[in-house]
Specification:
Strand order of the largest sheet: 1-4-3-2
CATH class: Alpha Beta
CATH topology: 2,3-Dihydroxybiphenyl 1,2-Dioxygenase, domain 1
Mean pLDDT: 90
CATH superfamily: 2,3-Dihydroxybiphenyl 1,2-Dioxygenase, domain 1
Shape: globular
Low-confidence stretches: 144-153
CATH architecture: Roll
Strand content: 25-35%
Radius of gyration: 17 Å
Largest sheet: 4 strands, mixed
Structural class: alpha+beta
Order of helices and strands: EHEEEEHEEEEE
């Protein structure tokens, strides 16, 4: 078996109306089509990806995301072109997103270029671009070693 991408990710938000307003701008910008918009669910699909939010149960209303706690660490959307990252950064600034890290290259994969930001509840989101085969390219190094676990000495 080989999977065909991630079908969907849903997150529970602390303030549904504020998060819905944010994601109603972000997800269409990313090329996703809104297919559900109800009193407690907002969901969009496109690019072999689904992403949605749910309203919290009453006992969790108003809570914020805690980076590093058990559960979701962050969600990363994959862009088709490097220039998409810079365009996304400008869009995110325009809609008032909290930018954690402006676009930059990182050593996670050859040519890894991304922007890191937060939704209104502080949930970490990222948009990245990796050219070519990324970590699947032969002799690809990450974190000081090769993908097969041997060290680059």
């Amino acid at each position: 078996m080989q999977i065909n991408g991630v079908a969907h990710t849903f997150i529970t938000v602390g303030n549904f109306q504020t998060a819905r307003a944010f994601y109603a701008q972000l997800l269409p910008f990313l090329g996703l089509t809104v297919v559900a918009d109800t009193a407690n669910t907002f969901y969009a699909i496109g690019g072999r990806t689904g992403f949605g939010i749910h309203a919290p149960p009453p006992e969790h209303a108003g809570k914020r995301f805690q980076q590093g706690a058990v559960g979701l660490h962050h969600h990363c959307f994959r862009a088709r072109e490097r220039a998409d990252i810079d365009e996304a950064h400008e869009f995110l600034k325009k809609i008032g997103a909290t930018i954690v890290r402006a676009p930059r290259e990182d050593p996670w994969a050859p040519g890894y270029y991304s922007v890191l930001f937060e939704d209104p509840d502080g949930t970490r989101l990222e948009i990245n671009h990796i050219p070519g085969k990324g970590l699947l390219a032969p002799d690809t190094k990450i974190g000081g070693g090769y993908q097969d676990g041997t060290q680059n000495l």
